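Case study B.
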Amino acid sequence: MSKTFSIGGIHPHDNKISVNAAIENFPVMERAFISMSQHLGAPAEPLVAKGDKVKTGQLIAKASGFISANVHSSVSGTVNSIEMLPDLAGNLVQHIVINVEGDEWMEEIDRSPEIKREITHSPQEIIAKIAECGIVGLGGAAFPTHIKLSPPPGKKAEFLLVNGAECEPYLTSDYRIMLENTEEILIGVKLMMSALGVKRAYLGIEENKPKAIKKMNEIASKGYQEIKIVSLKKRYPQGGEKQLIDAITGRQVPSMGLPIDVGVVVQNVGTALAVYEAVQKNKPLFEGVVTVTGKCMPEQRNFRMRVGTTFESMIFAVGGFPKDAEKLVSGGPMMGKAVSRIEAASVKSTSALLLLTEEETKRGEEANCIRCAKCVDACPMGLEPYLLNRLSRANRIEDLEANMVHDCIECGSCLYVCPADIPLLDTIRLSKAKVLKIIRSRPKK
Ligand code: SF4
Ligand code: SF4
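Model:
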């Protein structure tokens, strides 16, 4: 029987219209715009200068600080500039801009199609390789993977959970890799299990992806029995870390706690594939699968795309900008980020470019709360969004903290169900940031 999390959740239409589009290689662009801030933590520090020649896969920026990640060139060519450029939201971020010349890869990257099954690295070597190759979590947060695989002193992982839920509407990049790179993902899971020293892993997939469940089970039964494939009910936000842990293990991560507090580490299937490529194939993280989709688009595609590709070039690759497109989103419609500049470029964690029409983005005029409690029923964190909204608007910070605004995972389920079209997520997100700032500034006990 399929599993699911215990409270809240919604069932938005999944709109997975790109589901049958096999992964294709996206053409390498003429110029790559590679951000130094494509992971959680400190920006990477450039190691190259204007005029330097670089190869595809070459280290071009070094992690700085404890939470940071290395950045590699996604193309070969000449460094055109190192400059501050706006990201998709318009924030100025340091980029290395490279004029592309051919596509010459670093010699040590194994580009053969052969699947390398034998694991010869020690746990420490696996973690070092993951750090060296700049692997970050590809489920959205882009947290450096080597840190997540190194629990702090006193904490021990019992299980690894792998997120193949892909519960956000429209997204199909994880689904396609589960079908097309099944065994590589399972080897990546084994590598992470070895790094963590755990004997069991669970890979959760929503039941609306029966082909992926079948294929994963088939391959897992031939030499990967320590990885259990778990069928999950279709329910948003099933892929949230806390929801996935609840669904698969029944454990509850405490408020302000981390999965490791309940003996669990969560990784995404995309990250598992990147780990396989890093450790077994010497390939740094400089490309990934991106779904380009939308009902107004003439074509639906899944591309293997180099990091640093502009959103503009993605749109033109699928037939140009549709007349009725109103909004561009990087990611899914529930938790994705609005793209305010089409000249901005993709980063390691970019999973989709979604184009929505005015009809699809239209919000009704805000009305008064009718106290229907639909937002309370939908909240997967057990919060009272109508109350948090009221407290946020009155800026009652102490009351917001007492009502656990900091536990909000910004899933948007409350906003989705509210019949009064109250912008619950917008107000709650702002007050959550204020409360978290206060909590983090307090001296640690
Ligand atoms: S956005 Fe926050 S408050 Fe709203 S349903 Fe999600 S977790 Fe609850
Ligand atoms: S769903 Fe909207 S109208 Fe209903 S209680 Fe919540 S905030 Fe009020």
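Residues 424-441 form the longest helix (18 residues). The remaining cases will be described in the next quarterly update.
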